[in-house]
Design goal:
The protein is mainly alpha-helical. It has helices at 8-67, 89-97, 105-129, 139-178; strands at residues 69-73, 78-82. Strand 1 (69-73) and strand 2 form a beta hairpin. 15% of the residues are buried.
Length: 181
């Protein structure tokens, strides 16, 4: 029996084909790995920027709240002063982007609690300025309601300011320790 041999160029072609196939596989694996690394890096950078934005937003809110004054004007028998609605755009951004789940559970709880206080403070402020006063409501009842709401608001506001100062430190530490640059 004669053994059939392939021409040399066919065996060279076959070796080249195998080498090319191995190169393509290795290249594809490397490309996928690099792509995943870039995605992670982009996500980390986005989280870092958002956390910096939240830190800035909270600092700004504290500054605004310190200058915020609401009081009962005895002369006009009405609520007077200036107030702000506290911003939560950066927090909403990290929630809607899906990156919130990437944060530690402790930080998620802390931020959630803080922004619940913001929501409560905004709700009380809105209620104070939009309380339905009619002549059917006795002025004393209205005044008592306003004073109660303003007292509640001041208590929430003070707790919020204290919480924010601690949270800003916590956020900065989290960024430094957990978010790759």
């Amino acid at each position: 029996m004669e053994e059939s041999t392939l021409p040399i160029w066919v065996s060279d072609l076959f070796v080249q084909l195998i080498a090319t196939l191995i190169g393509v596989i290795v290249g594809a694996i490397a490309a996928i790995s690099i792509n995943e690394h870039e995605k992670d890096k982009t996500k980390d950078e986005r989280i870092k920027l958002t956390l910096h934005a939240i830190t800035s937003e909270l600092s700004y809110n504290v500054d605004e709240l310190v200058g915020d004054t609401i009081f009962w004007d005895v002369n006009t028998q009405s609520v007077d002063g200036t107030s702000v609605i506290i911003s939560s755009y950066s927090f909403q951004s990290i929630i809607h982007s899906g990156d919130f789940a990437s944060l530690s559970s402790e930080l998620q709880v802390s931020l959630n609690d803080l922004y619940l206080i913001i929501n409560e403070l905004n709700t009380i402020t809105d209620t104070i300025f939009n309380y339905p006063y009619t002549t059917a409501v006795a002025l004393t009842t209205f005044q008592n309601q306003m004073l109660r709401l303003m007292g509640e608001r001041n208590l929430v506001k003070q707790n919020f300011v204290n919480s924010i100062q601690n949270s800003i430190i916590e956020l900065r530490n989290y960024i430094d320790e957990n978010v790759r640059s």
